[in-house]
Specification:
Strand content of chain B: 5-15%
Largest sheet of chain A: 6 strands, parallel
Order of helices and strands of chain B: EHEEHHHHEEHEEEHH
Bound molecules: iron/sulfur cluster
Distance between the termini of chain A: 45 Å
Number of domains of chain B: 2
Strand content of chain A: 5-15%
Helix content of chain A: 40-55%
Radius of gyration of chain B: 21 Å
Number of domains of chain A: 2
Strand order of the largest sheet of chain A: 3-4-5-6-7-8
Oligomer: heterodimer
Radius of gyration of chain A: 23 Å
Distance between the termini of chain B: 49 Å
Largest sheet of chain B: 5 strands, mixed
Shape of chain A: globular
Number of helices of chain A: 16
Structural class of chain B: alpha/beta
CATH architecture of the largest domain in chain A: Alpha-Beta Barrel
């Protein structure tokens, strides 16, 4: 099989992994080598679906011995199989990198022969890149479930970011759909990476030249909508992962049916993009706004409102905490006002000494569309805004239905935000 | 401030512009224009570029107004927009008379204008860092770019560091200049015309492979061309390997 054929098969097999970011680490080139990394990450292109292309995202092999039912590469599926040699991958990476097509490599793989053998070959690939080509660009690598911990660990010394995909949010779903994987087999490597990063910090503190282990941290991905977990379950798990394993990111991937199976949604099911969007918004609230999963959803309310962003939804369910008086409120409370982000909250605090007014807020670039219901300045509320659940819902939901009556509009907005989050150039 | 009926003629360099600012402050005057275009009917004064004076102006902007303001001045200069020189003079004057507190005066037109212009230039810099494509000619790398602003000085260190051991040339077809890095030395030179050589077989191979990757990585169920155009504006496509065939 020629390299074109292989690239086609092994790209198609990798495209459903949503993570493509090259962020989290700043590294200059060392003068004998090629490449550097920048902490905000760089998108080099955008595919027809509008997603950022930052890394050469491929599988090493789709010739998988496992049989996860949701996966196109599962053993029992009758598809064409291909496997790259380590040198083929290294040469593609370097040649793409030199042309400024990419920031680096995102290497994953099906279980080829067995988990250990798979990881050994991945290590060999990264070794060629790092040692022979002296490649200093970005490498994101997947740990392989069920490989020996020390082998997975060795992989981490060549990578900037490492991830293990949870894929299915509960053990039950795993049992049902990924019979060779267990909760254990996924959480163990996660734990190994977390411990590895912590130990490595100490080593680097002791010896300046100690090799770096996964300096850009670890991430994971969950499939949304293949199984029947609620948003609440997913969000709780997400929160737990950030806390317990110190993940840098949890990615969500709206399930796109690729196989016919009675346990899975029908093949013509549309990917739940709006749901994915709401989960990303909620994830953002967990990471930067100090929200807890249980504040955003609860047993009576297990799903996000399709028509309302999670923050507004929360505010409407907690009207007794509003209005927030901008002249005196704490930063934390201002941050909880719908429509007010980190930058706006800081600007409000620093502008206090010169006096605040609604006009002034607008001049500072703060959008009051949603915020106006929830704030007062010197005891006065915004003219025409009423703090009343029905009124707010009518105004906000009405608008969002009118503005976003097609799913593609919603997606534009989400992708734009998500890109800004992950790859923003500071204040741009 | 009164506009004195004279124009400053400078050599188009940043140091030259700094000398114009020096002159304007020293003479306590505001010229009708600052330009390097000699085809003018206005009475003009030739401002000589004195590196020492330029340094004094730069130093005093950095020391008294801060690095951020200095950066804005530099970026605005790189926009090469018509009239930007006079705006820069007005902006620097405003900042000096307000003790550098520009960010608290965002509602002053000249301040917001300069902030916006600087932001656009810096956005263009990042776009070029993203979308620039090298082609390989027997081991040497060549790229052609068409940025709206003169960003070569801004991208130089990024590419110099990243591809330190390579020889490369980046030709800016809108500003007729090239960033050249040969045998580990980098400089920017004026270039009137640049003829891109034919692609080698090896180069064609990697372009085909890249296009193949690009087409395959798209999730067709999520196709969204509008979103792509937002992130990767069409004006760049003609120099972007994977999209140049779709550029009309
Ligand atoms: S291990 Fe499961 S999810 Fe991974 S490639 Fe194999 S079948 Fe697919």
């Amino acid at each position: 099989m020629d390299i074109y054929e292989k690239l086609k098969i092994l790209t198609a097999a990798a495209k459903f992994d949503v993570a493509c970011t090259s962020s989290g680490v700043n590294r200059k080139n060392n003068k004998g080598g090629i490449g550097s990394t920048v902490s905000y990450g760089i998108c080099h292109s955008f595919s027809g679906d509008g997603r950022c292309i930052s890394l050469l995202k491929i599988l090493m092999s789709n010739d998988c011995v496992y049989d996860c039912k949701y996966c196109i590469n599962r053993h029992s599926n009758d598809i064409e199989r291909a496997t790259f040699t380590p040198r083929e991958i290294a040469e593609l990476t370097i040649n793409f990198y030199r042309r400024n097509y990419i920031e680096g490599l995102f290497l994953s793989s099906g279980v080829y022969i067995n988990p250990n053998e798979t990881v050994e070959r991945m290590i060999e690939t990264l070794k060629i890149l790092r040692e022979e080509y002296r490649f200093n660009g970005y490498i994101h690598v997947k740990a392989i479930p069920n490989a020996a911990p020390e082998i997975n660990r060795a992989l981490g010394f060549y990578a900037d970011r490492m991830s293990v995909n949870i894929e299915l949010p509960t053990e039950n779903s795993l049992k049902l759909l990924a019979p060779q994987k267990t909760k254990e087999s996924i959480l163990k490597p996660m734990d190994m990476i977390k411990t590895g990063i912590e130990e490595n910090k100490n080593e680097i503190a002791l010896y300046k030249h100690a090799p770096h282990f996964v300096p850009a941290g670890q991430s994971t991905q969950m499939i949304i909508g293949a199984t029947d977990e609620s948003d609440l379950q997913i969000l709780r798990l997400t929160e737990g992962l950030y806390k317990k394993y110190r993940l840098k990111r949890v990615f969500f991937s709206a399930y796109i049916p690729v196989v016919e199976n009675k346990l899975l949604p029908a093949i013509d099911t549309k990917p739940p993009l709006l749901r994915e969007h709401r989960l990303y918004q909620a994830d953002w609230l967990l990471r930067y706004y100090n929200f807890k999963a249980d504040e955003l959803l609860n047993e009576n309310n297990k799903y996000f409102n399709e028509y309302l962003d999670p923050k507004s939804n929360w505010a409407i369910n907690n009207l007794e905490r509003f209005p927030v008086e901008l002249k005196t409120a704490d930063y934390e409370d201002i941050l909880r006002v719908p429509g007010i982000g980190v930058t706006s909250a800081k600007r409000i605090i620093s502008a206090r000494k010169n006096g605040l007014s609604f006009e002034g807020l607008k001049r500072m670039g703060i959008v009051l569309k949603r915020a106006k219901y929830f704030i007062t300045i010197g005891g006065k509320s915004y003219p025409t805004a009423v703090l009343n659940e029905k009124v707010i819902l009518r105004d906000l939901v009405g608008q969002s239905v009118i503005n976003n009556n097609s799913a593609s509009n919603q997606l534009d907005f989400f992708e734009a935000i998500d890109r800004m989050k992950e790859n923003s150039y500071g204040k741009r | 401030m009164a506009r004195d009926n004279i124009m400053y003629l400078y050599d188009s360099t940043f140091d030259g512009l700094m000398n114009c600012i020096f002159e304007a402050f020293e003479q306590k005057e505001t010229p009708v224009d600052i330009s390097y275009d000699t085809h003018t009917l206005l009475p003009y004064r030739q401002i000589l570029t004195d590196t020492d004076k330029a340094h004094r102006v730069k130093y005093s902007i950095k020391a008294k107004l801060g690095k951020d303001i200095y950066r804005i001045v530099y970026l605005a200069y790189l926009s090469r927009e018509k009239g930007c020189e006079l705006d820069i003079l007005e902006f620097v004057r405003f900042c000096f008379s307000h003790k550098g507190n520009a960010s608290e005066n965002m509602n002053t037109p000249i301040v917001s204008k300069m902030f916006c212009l600087a932001k656009s230039v810096s956005r263009e810099q990042h776009h070029i860092m993203e979308f620039l494509r090298f082609n390989d000619y027997n081991g040497n790398l060549i790229a052609v770019i068409n940025p709206e602003y003169f960003v070569l000085p801004l991208i130089a260190s990024h590419f110099e560091n990243r591809f330190y051991n390579e020889n490369f040339l980046i030709f800016d077809e809108n500003h007729f200049a090239a960033l050249v890095h040969i045998e580990k030395r980098t400089e920017i030179i004026p270039v009137d015309e640049f003829i891109v050589p034919e692609f080698t077989e090896e180069e064609k191979k990697f372009q085909t492979l890249w296009k193949l990757f690009y087409d395959t990585i798209e999730i067709k169920q999520r196709r969204n061309y509008n979103l792509r155009r937002t992130h990767l504006p069409k004006r760049f496509w003609k120099n972007v390997t994977e999209l140049k065939d779709e550029y009309i």
